[in-house]
Structure formats: structure tokens, C-alpha cells
Design goal:
The complex is a heterodimer of chains A (197) and B (443).
Chain A lengths: L2 H30 L9 H28 L20 H22 L6 H8 L2 H16 L9 H29 L2 H12 L2
Helix pairs in contact in A: 1-2, 1-5, 1-6, 3-4, 3-5
Chain B lengths: L2 H12 L20 H8 L12 H9 L11 H15 L4 E6 L8 H8 L1 H15 L3 E7 L9 H11 L2 H4 L3 E6 L8 H8 L23 E5 H13 L1 H6 L8 E7 L6 E6 L5 H4 L5 E7 L4 E4 H6 L4 H4 L7 E6 L4 H14 L6 H18 L1 H4 L5 H12 L7 H15 L1 H8 L25
Parallel strand pairs in B: 1-2, 1-4, 2-3, 5-9
Antiparallel strand pairs in B: 5-6, 7-8, 7-9
Classes of the chains: A mainly alpha (197), B alpha/beta (443).
């Protein structure tokens, strides 16, 4: 297979993975912040979060596989798991390896969720907030370079992803603060003032 | 009453100990008893030789004791599962006598602890020996309001009077904040473990893993006192009271008319009416507690005091007659407002549901609003359905039970309110509903 085909396949699946993982992040933040997606019942937000995260594994596998097969740069199989073992772009490939490891931890603990303690799952799942920025750094670090797709529309797409997740995080913190201020007495007062107008 | 029982009472009278028998057959004395008087009045506590291991459990099983804290769970089954968990895990269990009445209108537990603290302590000692418990905790409401004096001090003095070596069980007295849900078993375990004292999600029941992770037997103080009576007088004595399905002497807090509430001793199957006849004319009767149910006056007139006959749980033993000049809707709204404010605010259905239900009931209780707003009943029905069976504890369920019974029992009053009238002349609340001392911390 032509090396440039592999190169583009790797870049394209990388971008698709980024978009999918961004959607997974947005859905996960929605669930954790007890929010809703218009038109969807809560359980389908959870189901969608789970299904899309599994779907993106397929894209990630192609992304890594094509990058390994591509003979233009030499990336070893090991360096796709072991951080900073790559001779080519050790930092950016290394961040990709970190993201892969974190993702494996997230997926494995979620698949075993019924068998492990809820606390372990919860702590590991917080790693999602490390996984996603690392993946973004990997994307920009490699993709924005010479011949990468993170320029022009690709760059704008990445910026849109960052803005979306940032906004979701702000919403989550605000929602949590609003909830923590809510007490039965407050709800009673609020309902009273609403119904008596 | 058996011969033994009468014999003990006779002995008490003959020895001139100034302990008088009361109108309630002497299950509770008429004045507070110290340890010496207590032994004369009730007889000595059976020694471990007189009551070998296993025998107490058998007696309690035969007696058919059910918990007197409100849920009515069979004591024997709890005992078996706690001792089973203790044996399986080789961990010594904890026993907790729960004196956190919580219910503002109920006084029976405080009354019992005031008059006969040693009966509760005896029961704890007996259960402690039977389960080979290493910890025995008596939980009482901090600064428990009691008309006659400082209850916490009285209980501590009673504990100090006892001989720990002879008892074989050392009782710790722990003061628990007097909140409505503080006595819920998981909330109580949380308090005893130094936590916030709120209902929590537990993978295992407290019977498996309770205080400090040990298998924990939590029983209402009245149930514990019944253990002490059964150990002395036997299961047959216990079954002489009440009906086959609801045996045993029980304590009730009775509101009848303008008098202060009384704590009376009664047994299932007795007519209900004599207890509340003083309050005539009455409109309805609240049975069980703030998580209980209203019944109509005609029903109360003919019913017997038993769950089977009333078809509602006797719960924590509250019987409150609502005089005819009072408005049942105003009374219910007042109670439900209290219940909503007592929510720990942990679970969505309770936090968002109960205050809305309370607000809608307040509107319904006010003829001016009830006549102007349509859909109040529909909203209430819908919200009741949405909170029922949800949440960590049964606070929403119990509150909804009260609301539902009010919507049925006071339906003519509802019709009057919707026409802009109220048949109750006196809108002052009858039953107490203290404002929360402090809000539960938000989560």
C-alpha cells in the first residue's frame, strides 16, 4: 500500500477519533452533571456515551495500525503503548501512547464495572479528564506540523472541540454549585413564589 | 396475666417499696424507678445460668415480637441474621437500642426511658449476652425535650447505677441530634461512626455491616424493653396481650382533645374509641405517626386497635384525634411542610418532590387559593407517584402515605375548599412541627 494513503488514513482516523472522543466527553460531562440532552431520555445519554466510546476504539485501532504500517516514519509497535519510546517525535507520539494507556484503563474498568467497587471505577473514570487533553496535545503536536491535517479547517475543528469541552466543564461546575446550594427549604420557597404570582 | 406476673407485683406491693401499680397493668411504673426499685417491681434480671445461650432467642421467636420503631420488622429474624453474619465473618456484633424518637408528636420512647430506663438497659444486657456483642449503644435524642426533666442525665445516671461485671455488657449512651430521619438505621449508624447522620447507600444492610463495620442489631427502645419483660415473664405472658398476629403490650402516644398528649399502654385488638373519646366530636384520627395515615371518625368509632382491623400500619404508635373544629387539610399541610423541611435533601425525588407537594397542600388548605386554582389535586397525585418508592430511605414513601390518606379522608373538606369555604373554625395546628434547628449541609 502506498505510504501516503496510510499517512492520510492515519491522520483522518485520528481526527475522527478526536471528534468522537469529544462527543464522548460531552455526553459523559452531561451525565455526571445530571444534565439532559434535548429529545433524549437520561438512560440513552448514558447508552450513547458508552456506545460511542466503544465505537471510537475501532477508529483508534485503524489510526494506530496505519501509523505503524506507514514506512515513511518508523514507529514501533511498542512505542504505541509505552510512552516516549519512539525515536520519531518522542514527545508527541509519547503523549499519544499515554492517551492509549489511559483509554485502556477507562474501557477495562467500565467493562468490569459490575465486578469492581464503585469507588475504584469512579476514581479511574476521573482519568478521562486527563485522557482527553493529552489526546488533544498529541493531535495538535503532530497534526499541526508539516503535512498534517490540523491546519485550516482541521485546526478550526480542533479549536471547536476544545471550546465545546471547556464550555461543558464550566456548565458542570456551575450546575454542581447550584445543586449544592439547593435545600428543601429553598425549593419550598421557590415553589411558593412561583405558584402564588 | 400469669401467676408469676401477679406474684411479682404482689411482692412489690407487700414489700412496701412505694412503687404503685398503674392503671396500665404495671407494664410501666407510675414514677421513675431506680435500680433497687426496678428489681422489686419487675423482678431480678435472669442470670446467664437461668437463661442459657439460645434460650432468649427461642423465647423471642415464640413471642413473635415485632420492632416498635415504626417498621414492625420481626425481632427474631433480625436476631438470626445478625448472629449469622457475626458467626460467618467471626466478628463480634454491636447492639443499638434506638431511642431517637424523631417524631415530634411521639413521646412513648422518652416516656419509657424516663420511667423505666433499667428495663431498656436490662434488654440491652440480655441481647448483648445472647449475641455476645462487644458494643452496646443506647442512642437518645440530644437534649431530648421531656416535660419532667433532663432525660439524658436520667439515663446516664441509670447506666452509672449498674454493675458492669455482673451485667457482662457495658452500655454506652450516645446523644444523637433530634431530627426526624436521625433514627433511620443507616443514618443512625452514620452518626455512631462519626459521620453526618444522614441515610446512606449501603451495599450490605446494617445487620451485615453496621457500626464500625460490625453486624449490628438496631432495635427501638420499646422493643428492647419488651425483651427484658419476655426474659422474665415468658413468651406466653407476652402473647396473652394483643392478637395472634400482633401480640404484646404496646405503648401509644395519644392526643385526645385539649389535654396534653398521654402515653398509654394498650394491646392490639382493643377498641380504639375509648382512647380518644374525650376529644369528641372528632373529624378524623391520625394513626401511626407523621408517616402514618388518617382514618375517618366513623371508622375510628368502630375499629379495633390493630393493623389488621384498621388496615393501616400502627407505625410508631401515634394516635391523634383531630377535633371537628379543626381543618384536616390545614393540619396535613402543616405536617407535610415539616416533613419536607426535614428531608436531608440528598435524593432528587425527596429534595424536589416533597417541598412541591407541601406547597401544593398549603394552597389546597387555603380556601382562597384552592377555589382559584385548578389542577392542584392532579399535581399532588402526579408528584406523589413520582417520589414514591424512590430515594435512599422511606421518607418519601411515608410522607406520600400521609398525603394520600388525607386526600381520601378529607375529600369533603377538599370540595368545600374548592368552593371557597373551610368547615374548620380553628386553623391553629394541633400537632407539633418544630422548625429545623439547623439545615442539613448541602451535598
Amino acid at each position: 500500500m502506498n505510504s501516503s494513503v496510510l499517512w492520510y488514513a492515519s491522520q483522518a482516523t485520528g481526527i475522527v477519533s478526536l471528534v468522537l472522543y469529544t462527543i464522548v466527553m460531552l455526553l459523559g460531562i452531561t451525565v455526571a452533571g445530571q444534565g439532559t440532552v434535548p429529545g433524549l431520555p437520561r438512560f440513552s445519554v448514558v447508552a450513547l456515551h458508552r456506545s460511542i466510546s466503544l465505537l471510537s476504539i475501532a477508529f483508534l485501532a485503524v489510526h494506530i495500525g496505519t501509523a505503524l504500517l506507514d514506512s515513511y516514519v518508523d514507529i514501533s509497535f511498542i512505542s504505541s503503548f509505552v510512552p516516549f519510546a519512539s525515536s520519531y517525535e518522542p514527545l508527541w507520539i509519547g503523549l499519544g501512547a499515554v492517551a492509549v494507556d489511559l483509554m485502556i484503563a477507562l474501557v477495562v474498568t467500565s467493562l468490569l464495572r459490575g465486578r469492581i467497587s464503585p469507588r475504584v471505577w469512579r476514581v479511574v473514570h476521573w482519568l478521562a479528564y486527563a485522557f482527553w487533553p493529552v489526546a488533544i496535545a498529541h493531535t495538535i503536536g503532530l497534526g499541526a506540523g508539516k503535512g498534517g491535517l490540523i491546519s485550516g479547517w482541521g485546526l478550526w475543528l480542533t479549536i471547536a472541540c476544545v471550546v465545546a469541552v471547556g464550555a461543558a466543564l464550566v456548565w458542570r461546575v456551575a450546575a454542581q454549585q447550584e445543586r449544592s446550594r439547593r435545600t428543601p427549604a429553598q425549593v419550598l420557597e421557590k415553589t411558593r413564589s412561583e405558584v402564588r404570582v | 396475666m400469669t401467676a408469676i406476673d401477679n406474684g411479682i407485683r404482689e411482692a412489690a406491693v407487700q414489700q412496701q417499696t412505694q412503687v404503685e401499680r398503674t392503671e396500665d397493668n404495671g407494664v410501666l411504673p407510675s414514677r421513675p424507678l431506680g435500680l433497687a426499685d426496678h428489681r422489686v417491681y419487675y423482678g431480678a434480671l435472669p442470670t446467664p445460668d437461668q437463661l442459657p445461650l439460645g434460650e432468649l432467642a427461642a423465647k423471642l421467636g415464640h413471642a413473635g415480637v415485632r420492632g416498635r420503631g415504626g417498621a414492625g420488622f420481626p425481632l427474631y429474624r433480625k436476631l438470626v441474621s445478625v448472629s449469622g453474619a457475626a458467626r460467618a465473618r467471626r466478628v463480634a456484633p454491636t447492639i443499638v437500642a434506638n431511642g431517637c424518637e424523631g417524631e415530634p408528636a411521639s413521646h412513648k420512647d422518652k416516656h419509657l426511658l424516663w420511667l423505666a430506663p433499667h428495663l431498656v438497659l436490662d434488654g440491652m444486657v440480655l441481647l448483648g449476652r445472647e449475641l455476645r456483642a462487644t458494643r452496646a449503644v443506647l442512642a437518645i435524642e440530644a437534649g431530648a425535650p421531656h416535660g419532667k426533666g433532663d432525660l439524658v442525665r436520667r439515663v446516664r445516671e441509670a447506666v452509672a447505677e449498674r454493675d458492669v461485671r455482673q451485667d457482662g455488657v457495658r452500655v454506652e449512651v450516645v446523644e444523637v441530634p433530634g431530627r426526624f430521619i436521625a433514627g433511620e438505621s443507616a443514618a443512625l449508624v452514620s452518626t455512631l461512626d462519626g459521620g453526618p447522620g444522614l441515610p446512606t447507600y449501603r451495599e450490605d444492610s446494617v445487620r451485615e455491616r453496621g457500626v464500625g463495620g460490625t453486624p449490628t442489631l438496631i432495635q427501638n427502645v420499646e422493643t428492647v424493653a419488651q425483651v427484658a419483660l419476655i426474659a422474665r415473664y415468658g413468651a406466653d405472658w407476652f402473647r396473652d396481650y394483643g392478637t395472634a398476629a400482633e401480640p404484646g403490650p404496646q405503648l401509644f402516644t395519644v392526643y385526645a382533645g385539649r389535654n396534653r398528649p398521654r402515653v398509654v399502654h394498650a394491646a392490639a385488638g382493643a377498641p380504639l374509641w375509648p382512647l380518644i373519646a374525650d376529644a369528641e366530636p372528632i373529624d378524623a384520627v391520625l394513626i401511626g405517626g407523621y408517616h402514618g395515615s388518617w382514618i375517618t371518625a366513623p371508622m375510628a368509632r368502630h375499629a379495633r386497635l390493630s393493623e389488621a382491623d384498621l388496615d393501616v400500619p400502627l407505625g410508631a404508635g401515634l394516635i391523634a384525634a383531630l377535633p371537628a373544629e379543626r381543618c384536616g387539610l390545614a393540619e396535613t399541610a402543616h405536617i407535610v411542610r415539616y416533613l419536607a423541611l426535614e428531608s436531608a435533601g440528598q435524593c432528587g425525588p425527596c429534595l424536589n418532590g416533597l417541598p412541591r407537594i407541601a406547597a401544593a397542600l398549603e394552597l389546597l388548605a387555603d380556601p382562597h387559593h384552592a377555589s382559584q386554582r385548578n389542577g392542584l389535586l392532579e399535581d399532588l397525585e402526579r408528584w406523589c407517584g413520582m417520589v414514591e418508592g424512590r430515594g435512599l430511605c422511606h421518607h418519601p414513601d411515608g410522607s406520600v402515605r400521609l398525603v394520600r390518606s388525607a386526600l381520601i379522608v378529607f375529600r369533603t373538606e377538599i370540595a368545600a375548599h374548592r368552593a371557597g369555604l373551610c368547615t374548620g373554625g380553628d386553623r391553629r395546628p394541633l400537632l407539633p412541627a418544630p422548625a429545623p434547628a439547623r439545615e442539613y449541609a448541602a451535598h
